[in-house]
Amino acid sequence: MDRIGFIGMGNMGYAMLKGALKYFDKMNLVFSDANEQRVRQVYEETGVRFMDSNAACANDAKYLVLAVKPQFYPAVLKNIVNIVTQEHVVISIAPGITIEKLQQTLGYDRRIVRAMPNTPALIGKGMTGVSYDPSLFSEEEQEMIRTIFTSFGQMQVVPEGLMSAVACASGSSPAYVYMFIEALADGVVKCGMPREQAYQFVARAVAGSAEMVLESGLHPGKLKDMVCSPAGTTIEAVEALEQWGFRNALMKATDACFDKCEKLK
After folding, report:
1. For residues 148 and 63, is the Cβ–Cβ distance under 8 A?
2. Which of 52, 73, 249, 256 is deepest in the core (most CB within 10 A)?
3. Per the annotation, does 123 bind a ligand?
4. Percent of the chain with pLDDT over 70
């Protein structure tokens, strides 16, 4: 089997490596990272072989995942530009860095997959948007790409023009959800509930509500209406959320996230 290499062992690189271990033998995986302590830690936890340089990692793998932050891409690309060939499948997970921008450095005949995973991948619940030109990849390679990304959650293929929207929808949004959970739990603690219990109630309500959207197929507004009884407690709370700009705050956050992604291009 063609080997999968990971450059970078931050949260996303590590999550993808852990997911891959569910489907692939560790002998078919390899990684590199600039932090020697992190390299040793990941090796001890997974048994996956590590390489002493990014170039060596690229040279030893066909599928190469660039799992570093956007500001480190110039240095990493410089490391591997003379190693990557037309045979490689290069997978980029950095926001704002387009396929064309990568090809400007690596070569316009290089085959690039652009993806935007999110941190729930760490527990196998990730959601990833993936963009690539299928005409450049064999059926076997496309199946391999699907396996890599579904090893830690779900994926959907999207046009590259929507990748900034994917960052808004699922890449950055877990942070907003955690803020929502924390803030609502604070309010519940104010009502007298112990904090750890408040986190359990709130987090499970969020998880269950998300599953209702996915499994029922009903519009979120319809599901909201089902909770809001006439003259009840929930509609009073919804009115307060509207008064204090709940929806507008989320839309403004989305605008800010989108604008930042576009500026990175």
Report:
1. yes
2. 73
3. no
4. 100
Q: Does the annotation flag 32 for ligand binding?
A: yes
Is 69 labeled as ligand-binding? yes
Q: Which of 47, 60, 44 is CA-nearest to residue 20?
A: 47
74 is in an annotated binding site: no
Model pLDDT, residue 265? 79
CATH topology of domain 4-159: Rossmann fold (3.40.50)
Please check whether residue 3 is in contact with residue 29, taking contact to mean a CB–CB distance below 8 angstroms: yes
Instruction: Tell me: pLDDT of 264 over 90.
Output: no
DSSP 3-state of 20: helix
Q: Where are the domains of the chain?
A: 4-159, 171-263
In sequence order, which residues have a C-beta less than 8 Å from that of residue 231 and are 6 or more positions away? none
Q: For 57-107, how does the pLDDT look when each residue is reduced to its tens digit (9 = 90+)?
A: 999 999 999 999 999 999 999 999 999 999 999 999 999 899 999 999 999
